[in-house]
UniProtKB/TrEMBL annotation:
Protein family (similarity comment): Belongs to the AGK family.
InterPro entries according to UniProt: AGK_C (IPR045579), ATP-NAD_kinase_N (IPR017438), Diacylglycerol_kinase_cat_dom (IPR001206), Lipid_Phosphate_FormReg (IPR050187), NAD/diacylglycerol_kinase_sf (IPR016064)
Broad enzyme group: transferase
Keyword set includes Cytoplasm: no
PANTHER family: ACYLGLYCEROL KINASE, MITOCHONDRIAL (PTHR12358:SF31), SPHINGOSINE KINASE (PTHR12358)
Protein name listed in UniProt: Acylglycerol kinase, mitochondrial
GO cellular component, one term: mitochondrial intermembrane space
Length: 420
């Protein structure tokens, strides 16, 4: 024992390195063991759904998964196979996995998709944006938009996961929780933005549209990867070397919020017999006076000239309120006068919450808007973190257009917050 201690003391550098390596290896193995326990517990819970008896005449539910293997720097395929696929197969669903090979393929595949009971999106914000755009471009979108949608967060940016699932620092737990939420069946309605240019087909978004200096600087953050935790500040700092202040000028026309109609019941009442329907029709024909069509009141458009460092148009999905009485989207026009230091500081906050509206900004609630840009305007829009050429667009809110599966705990929190 004395010889061992003497050897360790005489070779203290090697001993320190070995101890650190042994400690790191033990921590890594313990993390892998905990991940396996999480997967096993999730599979056991999924198997309880798969063991439920169903009548022989009832077909299995069909689930179509749109998987983007390129998400999360090419790791999404492996993450899906290890964490989500076993849960889906054990649940008793008839699962079909569709892997996308290139950007924009999901939009084309949605045009050819046959009837399915569930749509599951496995990827990040870009995959969500492609799938809902392809879905809502269909000629029969009125029927297909009623299909519930599940989201398995596998991408680098997964904005919807903050609304649908509890926060978790463990990636395996986050993915398994999202997959189990699909089996539990709780859904929440989400708003969608329809963004249409002058010539292009409409694009649909669940988060929103950004146009300005913060978005342009945020796109270049990965370029400074070698600076580690300082890369975000570096990207915004170097962007201030351009012409300052960086103004965006445009004209904005918008309509105010609309009153939310009562939600339709999910289960429709059975149709009454023929003689009852005939009696009701005859009674309404003879008793009620004929009504002349009323003239539709002209829409009250507001017009605004704006000069801003950044403009954002966002849904309320991040602060989801299931009991609100009005439908609207948030338009944030940030002040153009800002110091370079404040720009760098605020840029870091924007990376965490891109659609935050800082103090001193002009906030507008609208159900529809038209954004007119001056001729020769360059730059790009960020639509759900995907890049599109900047052009004049019309943005229309489609309230409660799609239903997404969510964790029951999150739905309960939303309802409790609304009551308080």
């Amino acid at each position: 024992m004395a010889k061992v201690l003497a050897a360790l003391r005489n070779h203290w550098k090697k001993s320190t390195f070995g101890a650190c390596l042994l400690g790191w290896g033990g921590h890594w193995l313990y993390g892998k063991h905990c991940d396996n326990l999480l997967r096993r517990a999730a599979c056991q819970e999924a198997q309880a759904f798969g063991n439920q008896l169903i009548p022989a005449t009832v077909p299995l539910k069909k689930a179509t998964v749109f998987l983007n293997p390129a998400a999360c720097k090419g790791k999404a395929g492996n993450l899906f196979e290890k964490n989500a696929a076993p849960i889906l197969h054990l649940s008793g669903l008839d699962v079909t996995v569709v892997k996308t090979d290139y950007e924009g393929q999901a939009k084309k595949l949605l045009e050819l998709m046959e009837n399915t009971d569930l749509i599951i999106i496995a990827g990040g914000d870009g995959t969500v944006q492609e799938v809902i755009t392809g879905l809502l471009r269909r000629a029969d979108e009125a029927a297909f938009s009623k299909i519930p949608i599940g989201f398995i967060p596998l991408g680098k940016t997964c904005t919807l996961s903050h609304t649908l699932y509890p926060e978790s620092t463990n990636q395996v737990q986050h993915i398994t929780n999202a997959t189990l939420a699909i089996l539990k069946g709780e859904t929440v309605p989400l708003d969608v933005l329809q963004i249409k240019g002058e010539k292009e087909q409409p694009v649909f978004a669940v988060s929103g549209l950004r146009w300005g200096s913060y978005r342009d600087a945020g796109v270049k953050v990965s370029k400074y990867w070698y600076l580690g935790p300082l890369k975000t500040k570096a990207a915004h700092f170097f962007s201030t070397f351009k012409e300052w202040p960086q103004k965006r000028q445009a004209a904005l026309m918008y309509l105010g919020p609309t009153e939310r109609p009562p939600e339709e019941p999910e289960e429709k009442l059975s149709r009454p017999p023929l003689y009852v329907r005939l009696y009701r029709r005859l009674r309404s024909y003879w008793s009620s006076p004929k009504e002349f069509p009323q003239e539709v009141a002209p829409e009250d458009w507001e017009e605004l000239k704006l000069s801003t460092i950044e403009l954002s148009i966002a849904t309320r999905n991040r602060q989801l309120d299931l009991t609100r009485t009005e439908d609207f989207m948030d338009i944030c026009i940030e002040a153009e006068s800002i110091s370079k230091g404040e720009f760098v500081h605020r840029g870091s906050q924007k990376m965490r919450d891109p659609h935050t509206c800082p103090e001193g900004s002009q906030c507008i609630q609208a159900s529809r808007c038209i954004l007119q840009l001056p001729e020769g305007t360059e730059g790009s829009f960020g639509i759900d973190n995907e890049e599109y050429e900047a052009m004049p667009v019309e943005v229309k809110l489609l309230p409660r257009k799609l239903r997404f599966f969510c964790d029951p705990r999150m739905r309960e929190q939303m309802l409790q917050a609304a009551v308080q």
